[in-house]
Amino acid sequence: MLTIRDLHAGYGRIQALHGINMEVRAGEIVTLIGANGAGKTTTLMTVCGKPRASAGSITFDGEEISALPTFQIVRRGIAHAPEGRRIFQRMTVLENLQMGAVVADQRHFADDLERILAIFPRLAERLDQRGGTLSGGEQQMLAIGRALMGRPRLLLLDEPSLGLAPLVVQQIFQIIRDINQSQGITVFLVEQNAFHALRLAHRAYVLVNGRVTLEGSGAQLLADPSVRAAYLDGGAA
After folding, report:
1. 78, 151, 177, 212 — which has fewest CB within 10 A?
2. Domain that holds residue 126
């Protein structure tokens, strides 16, 4: 579904990605782990067109998308729930969900809203509440729900567990699993919580200083001594 080949990207003179290669197959959950500053968020942002790839290719369903404007990338079936949630704080929950639906067929809005509220029943109780007054976990649910309102085939999730209580983190990861299994949506997940992410993932990549250093199944990387030392046992590598 998504293929990244020899991708280079950065910000001005700062090079963040150095020729990375990844792929996300239809129906998978693929996770990308790494330390702060490794280039994880830049990877997702480059898929969405900002920043632009300076070299290499990004193809979605066989089509080169690296030169397309972001709105055209979204319309092809890619949605992004960014790091830090970035919901519209002064808009209500319903208005946030309406914003996510602007790229979808409006004839399906009622059905899509019902589907999203079934996934996130907490949001159904807060439709008229401003997004900025929600708890951190509720805001993350809203960010994911807003992305899903666009009817994506590929969902990009950036640090969905960031800043959340452990119980809420477990709920968010279960929701991601359910979205993949019951909705058939492919997921590309960036996450610092390596334990939960690798348990969830069909396949995974490790990014270090803008370069892919390891790849394999989630179970393989979960058992890899170097991964455990760097990301699971409190060490650094």
Report:
1. 177
2. 89-151
